[in-house]
């Protein structure tokens, strides 16, 4: 019998702790498959952050750091400056990256740090139980915006890829989604490209992946995918914002 | 080696480079700017990397990344910036990463002032960030001693896998003295087999981590770290005891203030009063053993500090209720004059002897 599907060898054989239907798991698989296919898995360094994905260091079969909340880009900077030929990437949520870690992220990009950021935007603080994130949509309910986010009171969600693509140090910025198979394939292409940009020492690369949080959105996994498509994509348009010129 | 005249901040940089420091992550703040400036100039010439971070938080987390990759790494700041580094220092302690952190301290709280002060004693010796931890703290009193201790600090950091703090002040950072870069006795350092390497060894996944989600794993992790602290307390305590035999009063002072106390000792001699000095060189671990023997003539300890009184708590613990513990402090950036110490000693002794 031929094998049609198997565990990627980029991930350790252990159960993931994510809620059933959470798209963090798909994203893990895409990152691991990309690294394996590019021959970078053994060389990779994962900087895990603080959020639901805090345990990524257990799941990816490579060396890893566990960074403090928001500081992954600074930890990656220190690591990559020493380990110049290794593939250093962070895996961060939207609260981690776009709120507490904004300064570290913006300046790693501005310096053109040759690292890759895997940025998982689920428009909520997942791990702490569904509080409003910097990416929570206007009108979206969260435990700290019980009547829905009010632009007047809480301002507007941040579009990270658009913002970072204005910086000269950013070489690659793309927003993708994992709400259906076609988009999962596109997401993997973008992740691979980001790692290739790093291998070619072209500068800072970020892939923003729109992701679901059924548990805190209060929807079942299928409805969550639909909610993402109907609500997040209009505000967070998919596509490439920056890519190095081919030479 | 020949002696040369150097400013304290630059001497720290030169000593770090001599100790094999290859990475420095900085952020500007008075009165330590000459150190990152020196490193930005000199480190690249010595095969190293200087990087100016976006903040002290950024800098200390870059230290975390570089230390986890096995590099000899340093960062520096002054009080408000060191306050920002505390989260990172806590993580460095939790993940057991070696590095050297320099605090050329100034006064506080808040933005305080930029003149020399010792108000960061608690912050340096009581952890400073969240959780159960300590860091070795060296308090040099001259530029020569700064140079020697910086080199020592890197070895201590590597030996015990811990951050080490050099606690100076604006005076130590800014003054010029002649220094000699002696070859300090080399320790036999453990291999950094826990660190990430440039070339991956197959089948040995490295993890730099301070997260132990299960209490039954976190408790032994802390017990292991505190086991190292027990060894540090036994092996690494440093202090100087001067003029204590038969002293009427024994002053306790570190860093800049210890120099002022020395001047006071000379002045008091003229009046037939003997002032002793216990000078902690390591603030943590505090040299409790220096207080074991007290001359029968000694009537009191006197903690002299450029603060409202912080080290005095450790002096009281060391004294264990045997003698009165007096205090003289000038906080806020005022450096006490020797005559002020003289007057305080005379006051303790009940007027001129
Ligand atoms: C300094 C600090 N502040 C707050 C927290 C609590 N905290 C843990 S995870 C988290 C939010 C994570 O949200 P996000 O980054 O969006 O990741 P998600 O869980 O949604 O994947 C917060 C605030 C912390 N661990 N450390
Ligand atoms: S809380 Fe949300 S983001 Fe976290 S694992 Fe569950 S579904 Fe995923
Ligand atoms: Mg989130």
From TrEMBL, chain A:
Transmembrane segments: none annotated. GO terms for biological process: cellular respiration; small molecule metabolic process. One of its GO terms (molecular function) is thiamine pyrophosphate binding. Pfam families: TPP_enzyme_C. Residues 51-209 form the Thiamine pyrophosphate enzyme TPP-binding domain. Keywords: Oxidoreductase. This is Thiamine pyrophosphate-dependent enzyme.
TrEMBL record, chain B:
GO terms for molecular function: oxidoreductase activity. Transmembrane segments: none annotated. The keyword Oxidoreductase applies. Keywords: Oxidoreductase. The keyword Calcium does not apply. It comes from the Bacteria. This is 3-methyl-2-oxobutanoate dehydrogenase subunit VorB. It comes from Candidatus Thalassospirochaeta sargassi.
